[in-house]
Recover the amino acids of this structure.
């Protein structure tokens, strides 16, 4: 049977890739009018669009300005979809993520890119900011009950705090309730093993892929 | 047979695409490493010029036969140039100086004017520090290692603009407000030229000019050619007699066809880039300066792994000259001294020219 929503799905995916901020809202309304659920729009249109953006970033045809533009484009679509995902008292967003740069480090670019891309991909994201003390990470995990905690550090002198935060989560009995992902220039795969994080994203695109993977979510878009 | 060349001679021959007695090895040791090595709190190192100077000399003493990169230098990290334009640097106890973006609106950018290095932000303090270091630096380090005298250093205009505006907003401006980007790049460039001229009044006519511009790796070739390259070139062109050293520790493989157009003579590049490709693309025109991984090899590796990696890099980049071994970005706090020694020794072992 022919899928009558296929053309609009394709246009939405392409709008993300082309960072078509001017048309994404219209297309999102059209997709809803065609009967697609907000969750389907995220998983079958925006998510696959983002995946292609990630591929282009990996291939060095897209860079920070293009990621910013794609992130802005997805944000416009999510502004329409998010309220619909919360209807009926049930939150159907992709998952909840708490993100911060660890204490001793004021770098925010990587963290902000991850937040922008995660929000665009349908996640509810809480930004704790930069130079975040250990106890605040623990408090926020306890209070907000996120699916994922993301930590960033660009400084070797600060990255040790990531291990301390994971230890503090264990002490508080919260470690099993949250997946922990880390990133930033100071983080290496070997370091990730030593601190016992669940995953490492080398950039914002990898972080979104990791978030999907950690929560067992699958994007189901067709080839564009 | 031990070489009769001083570290400076070896460096200057290689940097000008010549063939010295051996590939020069210049450990890339910046404040993070130097403060840790001297058991100092980071803030004390970065804020107090006397403590900083003595700490740098102590590290030089540990690696006494080797020219360090950048060696003895003013080093206030990102604080000097950004504060001159209006940022308020923070000096954390355990970390390098950091700044938060302060140019929140396009109107603020358009109102911005080039800084006066004798008046604005931390530039006067940086110039005083340069004067102090020159007055107190052992003659041997100036003559045989080439430190301080005739050396100019500044942040690149792309980094300066990105830090002041916020890299993410700056990236968005490229598409949405390109005139803002050009204005900011013009102000940044003019500020850097003024700062370098002020350095030159103290350090003497430049023989070497270092520009550190990591942000160029964030943008495409098209945007680099429009928004970044002409400004870097303008700075280098202001000092045509100087050897021009360029550092970027972000990925720039996509810029290799155009990056030499900045006017650079040497290129210190990202540790994750393929040195064979860099050699093929620009190695005939530009001295390559890299690209050890300071994290996975120097910090986390063993001396044997360091030697293996040094040998690999040397075998690829040494032929024909125009190569200097260092890391692609600064050596981290906690890096074992035996790993740095292993890098230096590997250069002696595998880097000799017959």
């Amino acid at each position: 049977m022919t899928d009558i929503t296929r053309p609009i799905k394709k246009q939405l995916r392409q709008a993300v890739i082309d960072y078509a901020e001017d048309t994404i809202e219209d297309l999102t309304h059209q997709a809803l009018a065609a009967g697609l659920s907000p969750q389907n729009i995220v998983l079958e249109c925006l998510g696959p669009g983002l995946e292609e953006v990630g591929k282009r970033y990996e291939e060095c045809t897209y860079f920070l300005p293009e990621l910013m533009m794609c992130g802005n484009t997805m944000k416009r679509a999510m502004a329409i979809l998010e309220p619909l995902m919360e209807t009926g008292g049930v939150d159907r967003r992709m998952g909840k993520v708490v993100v911060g740069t660890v204490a001793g480090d004021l770098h925010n670019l990587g963290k902000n890119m991850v937040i922008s891309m995660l929000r665009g991909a349908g996640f509810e994201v809480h930004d704790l900011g930069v130079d975040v003390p250990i106890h605040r990470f623990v408090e926020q995990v306890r209070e907000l009950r996120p699916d994922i905690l993301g930590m960033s550090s660009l400084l070797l002198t600060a990255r040790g705090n990531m291990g301390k935060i994971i230890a503090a989560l264990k002490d508080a009995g919260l470690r099993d309730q949250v997946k922990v992902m880390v990133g930033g220039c100071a983080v290496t795969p070997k370091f990730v093993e030593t601190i016992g994080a669940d995953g490492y994203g080398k950039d914002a695109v990898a972080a979104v892929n990791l978030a999907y993977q950690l929560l067992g979510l699958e994007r189901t878009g067709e080839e564009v | 047979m031990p070489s009769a060349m001083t570290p400076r001679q070896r460096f200057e021959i290689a940097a000008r695409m010549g063939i010295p007695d051996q590939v020069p090895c210049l450990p890339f040791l910046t404040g993070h490493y130097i403060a840790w090595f001297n058991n100092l709190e980071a803030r004390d190192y970065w804020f107090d010029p006397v403590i900083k100077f003595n700490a740098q000399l102590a590290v030089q003493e540990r690696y006494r036969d080797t020219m360090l990169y950048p060696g003895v230098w003013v080093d206030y990290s990102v604080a000097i140039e950004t504060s001159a334009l209006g940022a308020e640097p923070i000096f954390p106890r355990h970390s390098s100086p950091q700044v938060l973006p302060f140019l929140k609106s396009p109107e603020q950018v358009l109102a911005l004017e080039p800084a006066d290095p004798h008046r604005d932000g931390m530039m006067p303090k940086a110039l005083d520090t340069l004067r102090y270091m020159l007055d107190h630096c052992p003659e041997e380090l100036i003559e045989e290692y080439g430190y301080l005298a005739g050396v100019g250093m500044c942040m690149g205009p792309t980094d300066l603009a990105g830090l002041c505006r916020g890299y993410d907003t700056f990236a968005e401006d490229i598409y949405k407000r390109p005139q803002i980007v050009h204005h900011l790049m013009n102000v940044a460039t003019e500020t850097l030229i003024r700062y370098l001229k002020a350095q030159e009044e103290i350090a003497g006519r430049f023989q070497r000019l270092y520009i550190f511009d990591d942000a160029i790796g964030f943008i495409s070739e098209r945007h680099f050619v429009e928004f970044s390259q002409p400004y870097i070139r303008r700075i280098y062109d202001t000092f045509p007699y100087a050897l021009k050293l360029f550092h970027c520790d972000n990925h720039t493989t996509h810029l290799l066809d155009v990056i030499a157009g900045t006017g650079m003579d040497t290129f210190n590049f990202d540790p994750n880039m393929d040195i064979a490709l860099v050699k093929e693309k620009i190695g005939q025109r530009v001295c390559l300066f890299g690209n050890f991984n300071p994290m996975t090899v120097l910090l986390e590796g063993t001396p044997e792994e360091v030697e293996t990696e040094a040998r690999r890099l040397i075998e690829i980049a040494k032929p024909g000259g125009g190569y200097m071994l260092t890391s692609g970005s600064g050596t981290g706090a906690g890096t074992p001294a035996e790993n740095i020694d292993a890098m230096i020794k590997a250069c002696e072992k595998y880097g000799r020219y017959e």
Observations:
- Chain B has a mean pLDDT of 96.
- The CA atoms of residues 297 and 305 of chain B lie 7 Å apart.
- Chain B touches chain A through 32 residues (CB under 8 Å).
- The longest helix of chain B spans residues 178-203.
